[in-house]
Every structure is written in structure tokens, then in C-alpha cells.
């Protein structure tokens, strides 16, 4: 019962903060340069990080922040819930996220996303989506933005393993930038399919950048997957499958 009460309190603050962002910041954001938009709209993500910890009794154990590269990179992380989409925005801003187009239609939240130049995909047209990721991903990296691509392509519950997609590794190899692997167990604290949050330790591991110069995307992807899965074996409370 206590987790239900905590979750209700959390979502009250969640939606109130979103409303305040919509009223106070969204009218200003279009008139700012892209870097200014990130700084302004990221205030909501910083708030959610703190509010989730306070309201839901979650403790963060984040290791590897010294591995963050100074220049742009392709961030690849496992995808379990909404939390990591928030954290990865504040981990190494500014970052361009590859996401499904439907998110841009959400009131306030989607409007803010549009201002941050995401790569929005129509998942009903996979061939076109792949081409879009490769073209726009390299272009965003060339402007100094990092690119966030979830190699699983969609949310995957803790304890489930899904095939990794190589689009992020292809983008990194074409642009000549490193891949930054990230692993976490956020879905154990913030379930992707249920609104009730769970207290406990939320663990994040940030790996050393994986260089792509002179390497094939398949080779890079294999290294990313091996590293993420090894970390998940270590930090997850829900047992991991040994293979897909």
C-alpha cells in the first residue's frame, strides 16, 4: 500500500511539473538557440530525477561518469522504462534521441521534444526508418550533438533479452565517433508496464567509450552487447537469460 501512495504522490508532482514547464518554458524555448533549449527544458528531467528518488524511496548507484567523452558520441543503452530516457538526457547533454514519431503528438511533452531536434521514426516503415537514422544521425553528430539509440528498439522488461539492432553502431562507424555503452536496472524500480513504483537501489553503469575507427559495425555491436549484458548480469535483481 505504501508504494501505491508514494507512486500517487510522485505522479502528482510529475504532471504538475510538466504543466509548469508547458506554461513557463515552452513559449520561450522556440526563441532560444538549440543549446539554450536543452538547458531550459532539461530542468524538467533534473526535477524528475530528484523527485523520483524522494517520492518513491529510490537510491541511485551511478558508476562510470568519468568515462563520459568530451566530444559527441553514440549512446547505446538497454531500454526498460521511462526513467532511462530522462537520465540519459541529463547524463551528457545535449543529446539527440531516436524515438517513435507518436511521442511527438503528446501534449506538452511532445511539443517540448520537437524543439530538441529528435530523430522521429515511423516504425511501420522499417526500411525508411533505418535510412533516416543513418542520414540524420550522422548529421546530428556533425553538429556536435550526441545521439541516443536504444539497440533493442523498444522497451524490454527486466529478465527478458531481445536482439540488438546495429543501426547505432553503423551511425557511429560512419561518423567516426565512439559508442558509449550504458547498462541499468531501472525497470526494477520503475516498471514499464505498471504505474506503481518500487523502492530500492537503481544501478547505472557507464562503460568506457568503444572506438569505431577502422572497425565494422557488427564488430562494434557485438562488443556493446557483450558489455551491456555482462553488466546486467551483475546489477539486476531479476535473473538474466544466458542467451536471446
TrEMBL record:
Q: Look up the record and name the pathway of this protein.
A: Lipid metabolism
Q: What Gene Ontology terms describe what this protein does at the molecular function level?
A: 1-acylglycerol-3-phosphate O-acyltransferase activity
InterPro entries, alphabetized = Plipid/glycerol_acylTrfase
The residues that cross the membrane are 12-32
One Gene Ontology BP term is: phosphatidic acid biosynthetic process
**What domain of life does the UniProt record list for this protein's source?**
Bacteria
User: Which residue ranges does the record assign to the Phospholipid/glycerol acyltransferase domain?
Assistant: 73-187
Q: Which PANTHER family match?
A: 1-ACYL-SN-GLYCEROL-3-PHOSPHATE ACYLTRANSFERASE
What is the official name of this protein in its record? 1-acyl-sn-glycerol-3-phosphate acyltransferase
User: Native species of this protein?
Assistant: Vreelandella sedimenti
Amino acid at each position: 500500500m505504501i508504494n501505491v501512495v508514494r507512486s500517487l504522490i510522485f505522479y502528482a508532482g510529475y504532471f504538475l511539473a510538466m504543466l509548469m514547464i508547458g506554461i513557463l518554458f515552452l513559449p520561450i524555448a522556440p526563441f532560444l538557440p538549440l543549446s539554450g533549449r536543452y538547458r531550459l527544458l532539461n530542468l524538467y528531467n533534473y526535477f524528475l530525477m530528484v523527485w523520483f528518488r524522494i517520492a518513491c524511496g529510490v537510491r541511485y548507484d551511478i558508476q562510470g561518469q568519468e568515462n563520459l567523452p568530451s566530444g559527441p558520441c553514440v549512446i547505446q543503452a538497454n531500454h526498460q522504462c521511462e526513467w532511462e530516457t530522462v537520465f540519459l538526457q541529463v547524463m551528457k547533454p545535449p543529446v539527440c534521441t531516436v524515438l517513435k514519431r507518436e511521442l511527438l503528438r503528446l501534449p506538452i511533452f511532445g511539443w517540448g521534444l520537437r524543439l530538441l531536434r529528435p530523430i522521429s521514426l515511423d516504425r511501420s516503415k522499417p526500411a525508411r526508418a533505418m535510412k533516416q537514422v543513418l542520414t540524420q544521425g550522422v548529421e546530428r553528430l556533425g553538429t556536435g550533438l550526441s545521439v541516443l539509440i536504444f539497440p533493442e528498439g523498444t522497451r524490454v522488461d527486466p529478465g527478458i533479452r531481445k536482439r540488438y539492432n546495429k543501426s547505432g553502431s553503423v551511425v557511429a562507424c560512419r561518423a567516426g565517433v565512439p559508442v558509449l555503452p550504458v547498462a541499468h536496472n531501472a525497470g526494477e524500480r520503475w516498471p514499464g508496464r505498471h504505474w506503481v513504483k518500487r523502492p530500492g537501489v537503481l544501478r547505472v553503469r557507464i562503460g568506457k567509450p568503444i572506438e569505431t575507427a577502422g572497425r565494422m559495425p557488427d564488430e562494434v555491436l557485438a562488443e556493446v552487447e557483450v558489455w551491456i549484458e555482462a553488466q546486467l548480469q551483475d546489477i539486476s535483481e531479476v535473473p538474466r537469460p544466458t542467451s536471446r
